Amino acid sequence: MNQPAPLTWRVATVAEKRPETSSATTLVFDVPDWPGHLAGQHVDVRLTAEDGYQAQRSYSIASSPEDRGRIALTIERLDDGEVSPYLVDEARIGDQVELRGPIGGYFVWDVDMADPLLLVAGGSGISPLMAMLRHRAARSSMIPARLLYSARSYEDLIYRAELDRLAAAGDGLETFLTLTRSRPPSWTGFGRRVDREMLAEVAWRPERRQLAFICGPTPFVEAAAGHLVELGHEAARVKTERFGPTGG
Amino acid sequence: MDETQLRLDGNACGGLLHEIFATDLTAARCACSTCGAVGQVGGQHLYGYPDGPGAVLRCSDCDGLLLVLVHTVDRHRLAMPGLVWVDVEGLS
Asked: Where on the phi/psi map is residue A216: left (φ > 0), alpha (ψ -120 to 50), or beta?
């Protein structure tokens, strides 16, 4: 994976498009000669306008490494974005974009890493963590894993049905949801922003030497990572993927 | 807005670094010349990317300047004033 090789731009074709929430959409791309990826890696997507102007953004891969030849990106539409409005609103099946990857050896997880796993997601930060959970399920891994996922409302939870299925499999995955703005009447999950007490409740005990992956908007990630370190978790085992001020 | 609310992780400029190093640099360990901290390139703080003309990496421990990469259509300029070393594994 680390052999010197240029990172080439490939022409990817939109093969599938499915809305996840009112603002997030999953696009599945056919990528010729896709070399495969690790859960947690991302791609750079480049759009070129007719006048030659180019805009580029990085998106985490949401699909499992076991899905060969195709990659899924779940994209949150940002009103002032240069790339996401096109991908979410305009792109049609058969349309082509330029894409390069997979990129990154830092925020990656593989079932061979045997330590208990803690995943913490804010909003569309669930995307690379979903690749990890899909990879874990595809390999029938029993590695103890906990997911803490924060969204504004029930309707804003991405992959809701799939997460319910994964958590019901009885293979050692526990999911914890928190809704920060509005909650259904019968809600039994958390109902506040991720804080130190919540992480103390959800995280593994420090002596279990968990591997933590946190992804979401920058303020969310910084707060969660800070709490984990304060709770006694080793900073080098708290991996972060910041999305910037608003995410996406 | 506080600039720290805009920063990303070094991981996000993995593609840009790959253009110069022809290998993944995000998993490589590096040492900060300001404070001596050792960490992975992908875990350092990233500023100015992708909206600026390049990328600025600062130490996630002390905020010391590690690396500045500026690119235009036909050139890349790389400055690494705050890196004592970078340790890349797995090259043959």
From this structure: left
A59 touches chain B (CB under 8 A): no
Tokens of A202: 């959800």
CATH class assigned to A10-103: mainly beta
CATH of domain A117-242: 3.40.50.80
**Does A30 contact chain B (CB < 8 Å)?**
no
For B27-42, what is each residue's pLDDT tens digit? 999 999 999 999 999 9
Separation between Cα atoms, residue A138 and residue A171, nearest integer Å: 12
Mean pLDDT of B64-76: 93
Alpha-carbon distance of A128 to A176, in angstroms, equals: 17
Closest by Cβ to A104, choosing from B22, B24, B89 = B24
Residue B92 with chain A: CB contacts under 8 Å: 3
Are B27 and A2 inside 8 Å of each other by CB? Answer: yes
- B interface residues, A as partner, C-beta within 8 Å: 1, 4-12, 14-15, 18-19, 22-24, 26-27, 39-43, 50, 88-92
Q: Residue A231 — φ and ψ, nearest 5°?
A: -80, 0
* B43 to A240: CB separation less than 8 angstroms, yes or no: yes
Calculate helix-pair angle for A160-168, A126-138, nearest 10 degrees. Answer: 40
Q: How far is A156 from chain B (nearest CA, A)?
A: 22
The reported pTM is: 0.95
CATH 2.40.30.10 residue ranges for chain A: 10-103
Give per-residue burial for A35-54: e unless 16+ CB within 10 Å, then b: eebbbbbbbbbbbeeeeeee
A149 pairs with which residues across the strands? A121, A177
Three-state SS for B84? strand
Residue A247's pLDDT band, with cuts at 50, 70 and 90, is: very low
